[in-house]
């Protein structure tokens, strides 16, 4: 009997083995790129000590070796093929958070951090949290105003601003 409460209830979207092989292959690609780049800038020993790419090169070799071991391990264990990494409904819940977060990152570039944060917090509370719109809008407004006060007014930290802040002279 499996300890996973979703077994038999939620159809599998992808297996654990598939995810492990893909992630290890991506890490191997990163390791190869980093190794090549560190060789390019110098990964040897100079008269005055190690060159700039010496330690990062060997770290990329370790990352590449660990990735190869991970790929071999995932391919040698047939039980991982049947193990569910994520089911359809669980992946849907992940996307309900991931997609708004990606939109938030895009909006920060277009309308600035403070307005994007207000929209993100308010809509997230309404759609995901199922809270009343007035509480959500008020919370988003207070959060954005507090963030503006702390970072822009008190600490004078430059954060992405949009047309609304420009209209008010900030």
TrEMBL record:
Domain DUF1468: 23-160
Keywords carried by this UniProt record: Membrane, Transmembrane, Transmembrane helix
Highest taxon, organism lineage: Bacteria
Transmembrane parts of this sequence: 12-36, 56-76, 97-128, 134-151
One Pfam family from the record: TctB
The protein's name: Tripartite tricarboxylate transporter TctB family protein
Annotated source species: Ancylobacter polymorphus
């Amino acid at each position: 009997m499996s300890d996973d409460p979703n077994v038999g209830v939620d159809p599998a979207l992808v297996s654990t083995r598939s995810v492990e092989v893909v992630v290890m292959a991506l890490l191997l690609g990163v390791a190869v790129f980093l190794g090549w780049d560190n060789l390019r800038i110098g990964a040897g020993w100079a008269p005055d000590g190690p060159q700039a790419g010496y330690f990062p090169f060997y770290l990329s070799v370790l990352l590449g070796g660990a990735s190869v071991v991970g790929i071999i391990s995932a391919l040698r264990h047939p039980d991982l093929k049947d193990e569910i990494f994520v089911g359809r409904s669980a992946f849907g819940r992940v996307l309900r958070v991931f997609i708004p977060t990606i939109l938030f990152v895009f909006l920060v570039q277009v309308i600035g951090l403070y307005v994007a944060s207000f929209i993100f917090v308010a809509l997230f509370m309404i759609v995901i949290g199922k809270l009343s719109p007035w509480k959500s809008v008020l919370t988003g407004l207070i959060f954005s105003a507090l963030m503006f006060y702390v970072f822009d007014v008190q600490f004078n930290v430059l954060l992405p601003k949009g047309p609304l802040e420009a209209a008010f002279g900030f």
